[in-house]
């Protein structure tokens, strides 16, 4: 059997796949966080809870409404985004002019409420959700077997991340969003409804977390702790990439997922902390992150 660095090649390819899968979720979640922070200056600690809510909404659509996966892929992010819009209208917008810590504390409280409520109803074991039959099975790539659904997740994550980056950075709508955060009065004078624009931006960022939850539902146990298990790593990804940098969040998310996967091969105890070690090193060299800018 072919060996590299003393490890079997299939094992390395398997960990590479696992790293890219984890990186896909890191990238999608950190991208949503970067949008919300970069445009609204809100540290959304409830983002992991929205990821979890997206997974539970997917399960609920299947269980109670007999909706298939493809409809859930469309409906669940919209439902989670609508929930985010409700939160922005009733709670979040009240703290825009306050210190940034108020946003962190408010969203942390919301996350605890959502997690506690679902734990009380479903318990800690959670529920299961199977991948659609169309995406079942594996593909022989010659050097490894690729589960079809995992390949679909990677493709979907790259597509969504690329489309979102293009929307924010290269379109007129993205330019309006950035301008509204810098000078809302000027943008308002051009007839743009800035409060509505900001609310929809928050809903869109939250909807991305819901979409990640839909994609994660067939891979992981759908349980109330699934968001809290990811959120610390996702925050580290955002910090490393640069707070508010959407492109940085995407690239860093995929890169750190791969680094974490290979660390699990060569030094398993370090896989749980390698992301935070990288964060410490990056912040020592570049306090604003790899792609961020100092104020």
Features:
295 residues; ABC transporter involved in vitamin B12 uptake, BtuC; two-stranded antiparallel sheet; 11 helices; 70% helix
Short summary:
By secondary structure, the protein is mainly α. 70% of the residues lie in helices and 3% in strands. It has one domain (3-285): ABC transporter involved in vitamin B12 uptake, BtuC.
Give the count of helical stretches: 11
How is the largest sheet built, in terms of strand order?
Answer: 1-2
Spans of at least 5 consecutive residues with low confidence: none
Number of domains: 1
Rg for CA atoms: 19 Å
Helix content: 55-70%
Distance between the termini: 53 Å
Question: What is the CATH class?
Answer: Mainly Alpha
Q: Can you give the mean pLDDT?
A: 87
Query: What's the SSE pattern?
Result: EEHHHHEEHHHHHHH
Q: What structural class is derived from the secondary structure elements?
A: mainly alpha
Major sheet details = 2 strands, antiparallel
Strand tally, please? Answer: 4
Estimate what percentage of residues fall within beta strands: under 5%
CATH second-level architecture: Orthogonal Bundle
The gross shape turns out to be: globular
**CATH-defined topology:** ABC transporter involved in vitamin B12 uptake, BtuC
């Amino acid at each position: 059997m072919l060996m590299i660095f003393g490890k079997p090649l299939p094992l390395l390819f398997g960990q590479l796949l696992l790293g890219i899968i984890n990186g896909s979720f890191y990238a999608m979640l950190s991208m949503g966080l970067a949008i919300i922070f970069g445009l609204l200056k809100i540290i959304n600690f409830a983002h992991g809870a929205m990821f979890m809510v997206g997974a539970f909404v997917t399960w609920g659509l299947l269980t109670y409404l007999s909706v298939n996966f493809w409809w859930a892929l469309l409906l669940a992010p919209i439902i989670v985004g609508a929930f985010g819009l409700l939160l922005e209208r009733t709670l979040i917008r009240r703290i825009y002019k306050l210190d940034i810590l108020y946003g962190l504390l408010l969203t942390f409280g919301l996350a605890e409420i959502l997690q506690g409520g679902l734990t009380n109803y479903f318990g800690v074991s959670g529920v299961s959700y199977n991948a659609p039959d169309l995406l079942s099975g594996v593909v022989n790539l010659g050097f490894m077997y690729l589960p079809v659904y995992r390949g679909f997740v990677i493709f979907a994550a790259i597509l969504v991340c690329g489309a979102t980056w293009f929307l924010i950075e290269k379109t007129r709508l993205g330019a309006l969003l950035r301008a509204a955060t810098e000078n809302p009065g000027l943008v308002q004078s051009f007839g743009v409804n800035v409060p509505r624009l900001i609310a929809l931006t928050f809903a869109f960022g939250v909807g991305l977390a819901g979409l990640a939850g839909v994609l994660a539902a067939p891979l992981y146990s759908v349980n109330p702790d699934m968001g809290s298990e990811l959120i610390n790593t996702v925050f580290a990804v955002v910090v490393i990439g640069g707070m508010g940098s959407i492109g940085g969040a995407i690239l860093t998310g995929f890169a750190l997922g791969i680094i974490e996967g290979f660390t699990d091969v060569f030094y398993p105890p370090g896989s749980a902390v390698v992301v935070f070690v990288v964060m410490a090193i990056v912040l020592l060299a570049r306090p604003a992150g790899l792609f961020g800018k100092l104020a």
